[in-house]
Amino acid sequence: MSTVKHIKKLSMEKQLQGKDFLTLADLSPEEVHFLLQEAIDLKKKQKLGVPTPYLQGKTLGMIFEKSSTRTRVSFEVGMLQLGGHAIFLSSKDLQLGRGESIYDTANVLARYLDGIMIRTFEHEKVEELAKHSSVPVINGLSDTHHPAQILADLLTILEHKGKLKGLKLCYVGDGNNNVAHSLMEGAAKVGMNMTMACPAGYEPDSLIFEGVKAVAAEQGCKVVLTDDPVEAMTGADVVVTDVWASMGQEEEQAKRLQAFAPYQVNKDLCAYAKKDFIFLHCLPAHRDEEVTAEIIDGPHSVVFDEAENRLHAQKALLKVLMKD
Questions:
Q1: Most exposed residue of 11, 99, 191, 269, measured as fewest CB within 10 angstroms of its CB?
Q2: pLDDT tens digits, residue range 28-52?
């Protein structure tokens, strides 16, 4: 590494050290790219068996008010591989579940831990936890944002396409969920064009969408909203979808199945994408609902690379935010 690059790396590490990671909107484009490069480096070292004890003696507390497979395992393994420890804290194990204030919880946990990851419902709870915590808080998922997932998605796209800027990403499905919101924010930060197709009544949050459009204009790309899945899919390099009913929306299942039926990612719709498109899905997936088995299990799918990259992207986050 050249002296100039080394100085820039140290400067960026200092800039991010101790920072919260609540949404991708909170990061600069340079910070997003830096985290992706850190993830690439950590993944390479892990594959070569090179030890990475950057967080020796550090402890991450993981608060789960929503259950998870990938989030828990990837953060826990990530801390282990970085030389630290992770503690699983379910809502049943915490006094939060009995009405203790977030203010008290944040202040107490910060005395024990070096970082906190929370996977919860209301995004306001993540923000309040970060406000009162003296150690970094990482948003593992909230109802409106899923930034750690999208950092892994960007890493996956970069690996398979060799670049991010100028690509066209097509998102089809529910525009008003955490994946869609964070995906828009991430795409805009790295200069990737994004077209989102969703039915009326399921558009993204207007404030988030307007903020994303402003960032996209600065980065020389566009984020477009449409109700036409063919328009969104045409010429796409990357195709993304998510479940039609997120956790907590199960009572709307029948209504959503009817509304989203024309938005299924299938062979006919994907025929409008580029021939070498890649397909992403954060998982868990409902085959033959939002995506057919033919697509998610087919040659264009990179969903398991994407799932693995949760580990590497989050290790980058943990290392940069929690390292002394």
A1: 99
A2: 999 999 999 999 999 999 999 999 9
Range of the domain at 187: 149-306
Q: Are strands 59-64 and 223-226 parallel, antiparallel or unpaired?
A: unpaired
Burial environment of residue 120 by CB neighbours within 10 A (0 to 12, 13 to 18, 19 or more)? buried
The answer to whether residue 2 is domain-embedded is no
Report the Cα–Cα distance between both ends of the chain, in Å, rounded: 21
Q: Whole-angstrom Cα distance, residue 321 to residue 224?
A: 33
| CATH assignment of the domain containing 134 | 3.40.50.1370
Q: How many residues does the chain have?
A: 324
127 domain-assigned: yes
What is the enclosing helix (H) or strand (E) of 139?
strand 137-141
Whole-number Å distance between alpha carbons of 215 and 222: 9
Low-confidence residues in the chain, pLDDT < 70:
1-2, 4, 97, 247-250
- Active-site annotation, residues: 119, 146, 149, 242, 282, 310
Judge contact between 271 and 298, C-beta under 8 A. no
Q: What is this structure's pTM?
A: 0.96
The pLDDT assigned to 97 comes to 62
In the numeric block, the tokens 């050290």 are attached to 17
